């Protein structure tokens, strides 16, 4: 049977369970269309069918190797202790050490972390960096923690998982709600605990501050990668970059960097939404000013007041208007960039969206139902595992630099990143053409051919 990801997920949605892949039962996964991990595995199994992936590789990939869950007490500023829950899911390490971010968010839960770990396996394999996939997180709201509390949560979590991570085994990185400072605390805690047993303990995490071994170009890397993929893809999609209209959902690290780099190339960032509100300027928002505003105030809200202080419309933000969430989704653009959390582009939003291309800068932003709607409307979706792989690619460069005691200049980082992102993009386009499928299924196909080949060579032992 040869179907697209869309076929499988659509049929599941109304199937009542009749056409589930038998592997769901075999590995004990819930046949629940609303379960994010189930959705992710369904898409992979669909591509596995197309490339006739060996059964043993399918069942291995359908479940993570390790699911680590910890509880740890932290002393809060007022003196009382609070118990936190943390996760590290290690999905697969056939290609290399587990690799992936740590998320600090109040809604972090196991299935979510499993899906994100799974996606890291796919992402690293797609861009052919020698890492497997992992993901972790702590259930907390970092905005409600004081700097001291955040540091103690980080160090205590690191202590709880210290035996499960390491520069040769599992290498965390920043994700939603964490940053280079959090990575610095992890590296310091790990180094203190590892003592002399580790020759390069700071290579345990990537995304560190430059002064303690971070890589130049890492902070903007995910946004830069989104742009590299788009530029490689735009000629095929027949969209010129000059005056290309773009809307962005989420204006944290990834969304703001993608916006700034695209604007510098001549694109018009016409609308931005984040958790505080939505702003629009059909002439193009001044995303550099918007980014500064977000850094100062925590969100896009209020930018319209600053914007109306004068200057040209393009460079002051003059003309910036506040719009409703519905208006945001209905703003006509060439490219829509979801750069926030999972599942934000749902079925309703997919009907509303007026874009030609969706570039998934976030992980898993599109629900399977929305994917089906977008496909039926002829809207091309550049999948997360390709579109946002720039972050982990530069993480790989950081790890290489740490382990070989060298420092690359930013030109070298950007050049190598571009080479890897373009090669991965061409690989996905070729698979799409060969199998007449969506870009998402094509990306899975490229990944599964690679991982299948590795398992063929390595075998399974004992
Ligand atoms: N958290 C990022 C991602 O989802 C980066 C992971 C990494 O650099 O290891 O891709």
Numbering strands along the chain, what is their spatial order in the largest sheet? 9-8-7-6-10-11-12
Q: How does CATH name the architecture of the largest domain? A: 3-Layer(aba) Sandwich
- Outline the low-pLDDT stretches: 1-17
User: Which ions and ligands are bound to the chains?
Assistant: glutamic acid
The percent range for helix content is: 40-55%
The CATH class assignment of the largest domain is Alpha Beta
User: Treating each run of at least 4 consecutive H or I residues as one helix, how many helices?
Assistant: 19
- At the fourth level of CATH, the homologous superfamily of the largest domain is NAD(P)-binding Rossmann-like Domain
- Radius of gyration over alpha carbons? 22 Å
In whole angstroms, how far apart are the ends? 32 Å
Instruction: Please tell me the total number of domains.
Output: 3
In round numbers, the mean pLDDT is 93
CATH fold group of the largest domain? Rossmann fold
Describe this structure in words.
This protein is α/β, with parallel strands linked by helices and 462 residues long. The chain has three domains: 5-62, no CATH class; 66-200, Rossmann fold, CATH 3.40.50.10860; 221-382, NAD(P)-binding Rossmann-like Domain (Rossmann fold). The protein is 47% helix and 15% strand. The chain contains 19 helices and twelve strands. The protein has helices at residues 5-13, 23-26, 36-50, 55-62, 110-127, 147-161, 180-194, 221-237, 253-264, 287-297, 303-307, 313-316, 325-330, 347-352, 368-376, 384-387, 390-404, 410-435, 439-458, and strands at residues 66-75, 81-92, 98-105, 133-139, 170-174, 245-249, 268-274, 277-280, 321-323, 335-338, 357-359, 380-382. A seven-stranded mixed sheet has the order 9-8-7-6-10-11-12, sandwiched between helices. Strand 6 (245-249), helix 9 (253-264) and strand 7 (268-274) form a beta-alpha-beta unit. Helix 1 (5-13) crosses helix 15, helix 8 packs across helix 9 (253-264) and helix 9 packs antiparallel against helix 10. The longest helix has 26 residues, at 410-435. It is globular and about 60 Å long. The two termini are 32 Å apart. The structure holds glutamic acid (GLU). Residues 99-101, 173, 175, 206-207, 363, 388, 391-392, 395 line the site of glutamic acid. Glutamic acid is lined by residues 99-101, 173, 175, 206-207, 363, 388, 391-392, 395.
